[in-house]
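Weekly modeling sync, notes
Attendees: S.R. (lead), two postdocs, one rotation student

Agenda item 3: backlog of single-chain predictions. S.R. asked that every request posted to the team notebook include the full sequence so nobody has to chase files. The rotation student volunteered to paste the first one in as an example of the format we agreed on. Action items at the bottom.

Example entry:
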Amino acid sequence: MKFKRQTKAQLEINLTPLIDVVFLLLIFFMVTTTFTKETRLTVDLPEAQGVAQELQTEQLEITIGADGRYAVNGKALVNNKPEVLKAALVELSGGDSSLPLVITADALTPHQAVVTAMDVAGQLRFLHLSITTQQPAQQ
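Predicted structure, as returned to the notebook:
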């Protein structure tokens, strides 16, 4: 009998089934993912007595929803961080701090969100800052 030492077979990993599974998972997640839709903030303004001012054609407007989310000139921001608000104001104003800045906040907005918006405006040295209100309902 002739005994021959067996040589080890080379191990090979076939990647084709692995790539197929990864592509199937990718397609599954692409099909089942729901994408966020940008929605407008519904704002219920606080009431105050006074004379309404004329709106200037070129101004910046920070809208703060009841949940404290920010939108600048109608475009919602990705989060509520002051740095993001500051970057949006610098981008839209082009560094011009003489533009009028209007803060429109819902009556149920947390006070901290309004103070944060005013603080960011102060850091950017905006000179013309105003807060919008509405006339009280006649009873």
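Discussion: group reviewed the output briefly. The radius of gyration is 29 Å.
Action items: rotation student to repeat for the remaining queue; S.R. to check formatting next week.
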